[in-house]
Amino acid sequence: MQLRYEDLEELVLKNDPRADIKQLRKAWLFAARAHRDQFRASGDPYLTHPLRVAYTLAQWGADPTTVTAGLLHDVMEDAGVSREELEELFGKEVAFIVDALTKLSRVKIPETGGKGFSSSERQVASILKLFLSSMDEPRILKVKLADRLHNMETLQYLPPHKQRRIAEETLTIYVPIAHMMGMGRVKGDLEDLCFRYLYPEEYSRLEKLLASRMEEFKGKLQKMESLLKEVLKKEGIPFKIQARVKRLYSIFRKMRRKGVELSSIDDLLALRVITDTVDRCYQILGIVHKNWPPIQGRLRDWIASPKPNGYRSLHTTIIVGGDKFEIQIRTEEMHREAELGSASHLTYKEDRSYIKEALDFVRELQSDLREKDLIKNIGRGLEVREVIYVQTPKGHTIELPAGSTPLDFAYAIHTEIGHHAVGAKVDGLRYSLKKPLQSGQVVEIITDPKATPSVDWLNFVKTQRARQKIKSWFRKTEKSRLIPQGKKLWEEFAQKNRKTLGDVSEEELEERLRHINIKDLDYFYYLLGKEAISPSTRLLRRLFPEKFREEIRKRKRVLKKPTVTVDGYEDIEVEFAGCCKPIKGDEIFAYVTKRGIKIHTKSCPLYLQGLLNPSRIREAQWVEGGDQRQTVSLEVKVIDRPGMLKDVLELISRHEINVVDVRGNSVGDGTGLVYITFEVKDKKQWNEVFRDLNSQDEILNIKVL
What we know:
Blueprint: H1 5-15, H2 21-34, H3 48-59, H4 64-72, H5 75-79, H6 83-90, H7 92-105, H8 121-132, H9 139-153, H10 160-180, H11 184-198, H12 200-234, E1 240-245, H13 248-258, E2 269-275, H14 278-291, E3 300-301, E4 314-320, E5 323-331, H15 332-340, H16 353-366, H17 372-382, E6 387-391, E7 397-401, H18 406-413, H19 415-419, E8 421-426, E9 429-431, E10 443-447, H20 464-496, H21 498-501, H22 506-515, H23 521-530, H24 537-543, H25 545-555, E11 564-566, E12 574-576, E13 588-593, E14 596-601, H26 605-608, E15 617-622, E16 630-639, H27 644-653, E17 659-666, E18 671-680, H28 683-694, E19 699-704
Parallel strand pairs: 2-5, 12-14
Antiparallel strand pairs: 1-2, 3-4, 4-5, 6-7, 8-9, 8-10, 11-15, 13-14, 13-15, 16-18, 16-19, 17-18
Helix pairs in contact: 1-2, 1-3, 2-4, 3-4, 3-9, 4-7, 4-9, 6-7, 7-9, 9-10, 9-11, 10-11, 11-12, 20-23, 24-25
């Protein structure tokens, strides 16, 4: 049925009979004029979108100001209306919300041409702005979610590559927002809509499977509902019951995570009992357990210990006639908040705990926004995953990703508790810091003021917060250690090259460093100490070209390259092809070009794919004997840790190979790149070096340049 403005007005008055309908009607007429010549991809008038957004907000119990902002949320972006005009007509609150939403809409995550969703700095900016703009006005989040929900509901009118991009963006950013706000219904709706476009085959298969068994499931739920009503009526308890089959995306995620079929899902069938008081919730729980045996370990009391997003309810799983049923028990208020979040009331609570966790996460990231590893992983940090709930000794509930350890718990409580953790007690017993926790456990962290983080912790912590805090500690503490170390390295190196350099003052050195984009001496010494750069002739050439040029020429070693014969002739000038980089010992051939003769390997891709003219190919052979060597340049991806550059050098040097140049830099995601050029005498020696490098666990990839 087509939505009318009158439907919106009726719902707003139902929510709040004192609502300013004149203001709402003015906003409706203003939006109608602003969007009068605009249409959506479906062909519908654009005005149908803000009307649906506003109606959704009213369904969520939003106040009239938020509903008004929903009607007007696109007029600045799509119709050129100014904030000043909105403020004059509709007040500061509405203008602020619409202006914030307009700024957010301008932060576009780049399309990937259907190749999947890739994190970028723009994605980070989008997420950060979304949360930071909501710190003082969380209603912005609600309008944004309502806007995204309707866009997802009408996604079928867009091209497939845009469908996938928007669905991926929604699952990465907007689903976690709904989760953090405790808006369970909205989160579930968005997940199912994303599922349809991200996994179309799995969606279709699971939808058909559920449809084929839906009558069976409905019959079981109706039978269980009748049994439950019968026992509750005998007790004279006020209640109402809702029955449901688990949502499609939730089923899919659990089947994929556990590697099981539909029949193995414990909470596939669920009944929700809604009553009037907390005492009656516990009374109903007792009645359920008295009549049907519960499954051990499946009882969850989210009333005594609410989830971090404010969710409250009792959960238990029972077996009736061989079928498993999840029973949820809650009050009307708990139910409203579970469906629409703590912000579902007409006025917003001062304690906005439903977004506190998200805001804390964002605040921690602000100072480190330029760190590439954080930019790459922020989506993962906000991702809605399978979670566990554990408690502090005082009964406070902490939500963690499944697989989290006591150390993750420690950092979730406070950074300093994590930094000084030495052990843990779980349910009163000693427990390893690296052992995964289970839902329902009570965790206590043992600390020592003298203790400090260990690099090994990064191998087992699960949460982005813990990983970030550990890395941050090492970044800060290693500077105080590495700067003096780097200074000593430089002074020793400068002394060895004093004949060439002469006396170089710190002022002169600092001035030269600015020319190669190193900001100051301390940072230079830090890079040296960290082995991100190495004291080498290459560095001197960049810093003091006029002083070092002649000395470099004097010291430069003349490299006698291997020679080849072409059709039996030895004194022919040739080049080694860059496409396959022949090394003495490879099977080779000569190829005649307009610019001379090039030597290729017989495993060259151009040769194997038939892209070379056969009439230009000539026979070629290596000339044996003599001290003939070639330079090989590699890009080696490694685990980023102090001393790694030195270890790579030692690996190569043990083959009695002359290293011509080496440098390294940190990528920022826990890895680094080492660029190294060295000399080899033949293919056999090169293979030995390659095998040695490739066998190291901390060397992730080797690329020949």
